Amino acid sequence: MIAVFKRELNGYYKSVTGYLLAAVLLIFAGIYCMVYNLSGYCANFEYVLDAMSFIFLIAVPIISMRTLAEEKKSKTDQLLYSLPISMTSVVIGKYLAMLVVLAVPMAIMALYPVILSQFGAVSFATAYGALIAFFLLGGCLLSIGLFISSITESQVAAAVITLVTMLLLYFMSGLAGYVSSESSSSLIALGILVLLFAVLLYYMSKNMLVSLAVAIVGIGALMLWYQADSPAFSGLFAEIMNSISVFDRFDSFVDGVFDLTAIVYYASISGVFVFLTVQAMEKRRWSE
Amino acid sequence: MIEVRHLTKRYGNHMAVSDLSFKIEKGVIYGLLGPNGAGKSTTMNIITGCLGATEGDVLIGGHSITEEPKEAKRLIGYLPEQPPLYMDMTPKEYLRFVMAAKNLPVKGRDGELDSVMEKTRIAEMQNNLIRNLSKGYRQRVGIAQALLGNPEIIILDEPTVGLDPAQIIEIRDLIKELGREHTVILSSHILSEVQAVCDAIMIISKGHLIASDTAENLTAMLAGTTTLRLEAAANESSVRAVLDHVDGIEDLHMMQSSGDATTVELKPEENTDIRARVFHAFAKSDIALLEMTSVRASLEDVFLELTQQEPLQEAAPQDQQESDDKRKEDA
Lengths: 288, 331
What we know:
- The complex is a heterodimer of chains A (288) and B (331).
- By secondary structure, chain A is an all-alpha fold.
- Chain A contains 16 helices and no strands.
- Chain A has 2 domains: 213 residues, no CATH class; 53 residues.
- In chain A, helix 4 packs antiparallel against helix 10.
- The two termini of chain A are 24 Å apart.
- Chain B has 331 residues and is an alpha/beta fold.
- Chain B has 2 domains: 220 residues, 3-Layer(aba) Sandwich (Rossmann fold), CATH 3.40.50; 69 residues, Malonyl-CoA ACP transacylase, ACP-binding (Alpha-Beta Plaits, 2-Layer Sandwich).
- A 6-stranded mixed β-sheet of chain B has the order 6-7-8-3-9-10, with helices on both faces. Chain B has a 4-stranded antiparallel β-sheet with strand order 2-1-4-5. Chain B has a 4-stranded antiparallel β-sheet with strand order 12-13-11-14, with helices on one face.
- The radius of gyration of chain B is 26 Å and the shape is elongated.
- The C terminus of chain B is likely disordered.
- The chains are: A mainly alpha (288), B alpha/beta (331).
């Protein structure tokens, strides 16, 4: 695991990727700090983080696109498979390297509140609370990027799919608001989600029977539930989307609340996607 | 050392390897021989744990590759068909990474690195980026990677493909050298290579093991077909007349005849040397023998015969259909 971690980290800083990411992150942190804190006479660094959370739309694909897709393309994955190390430690090593690449520019950003405190009263608790949450949000999104990289064959495909996924996540609660709050439209929206999930399942497992079963059972259950209690569906879709939206969870930190449930949520999402990545890599060995 | 038990690998409907079983003994260089698409790489990938088998198991030094992969993989050094190199590293960095991943004792790493680089002769390129190395050097870095940790078994998938003749000879010498201390399995579709390097040969065709023996024994299998080719200074009918009186000729085949010179191929009865008899017969009839050669069956003939008779035994059309389908999928 340490060997993979070191190699990956080296790879990021030997190529332009690590520096590019640091530059992008610091430029935007600088611009927003200038606008909100310095020009706006406001000592709340968390507002800067809130304004620049969109940066992950670019940052995540930059970091995660090459990590596993490139191994597949250059056939170096065969080396990883033949070495006496488990796929879990390979994936965790890679994930930790990605986290460090994100952590390095954020460590520089952690100096900003200290600098600001020279000119006024800064609430360090809320500033650093938000900074930690910002990092965990990034870690959670990176795990999704890692997973996408493991199921794609090329860097470009991985980057595009990751970007689209990040866009959807970013605008998820906003888009969900456009679905009318009537029960029937909630039902339809949820039905489409179940179908999408079944398609993804088919893409992953190539098992038509299981995917069809999931689609039929899922939609059947929705229909039954709708028959039994249609008022419960009113506004349900938007509610669900809001509660699973990773970006929205970050807002409470900006408001000065250190939301433990959000921390647990980010950690769980990261864990699930790292696990799924290991499974995807293991699966490739069986059905190449 | 390695025991392959009833290995089967299916890709959809296509059987890449079907019910393959063999044993690898310690300290022998094995050649896995077969035409392209015979299942050589698939077999090697399964042995090294890069690929899961549909059925069957592989035991390496008593450890199952599926159940105790770490113990089993520690005994193997593997060079896949395409050397798995990170282009953004130098050979030195790359080999250090592999040593760390193989979890070799930190103390001995420097010595190990130097000895492996010396063996594979890459020391002078150790600080150049792998991206800038020639194919021959890349191949050697790939072999060096397999040698790290001094594993008992070295598996090389088509180690000489794409190299120039001088490099091929170098790599072959290296493999022979490795054979003194390690068990080596290499795959190839080039007969002369396997013949030159390997002690034992396994011929694979369409996922089946169809022959497994030493090179000499395989050639001896067809030794019965040793033929005698001769050219005599006479026309066809007089040559035939002379040979009619020689005992021990099973079959006679006129190759070509141009008035005053005739070429004939003779198949002697088994275990009979008819050369002296043929000479005296021609001498008695006062016909000059211009040439007489024994033509031994080469390994090439054995190979062609074995790989070609295989589809006849199987249900050939169906097999063909399947591999066509597979090709379409690949496209």
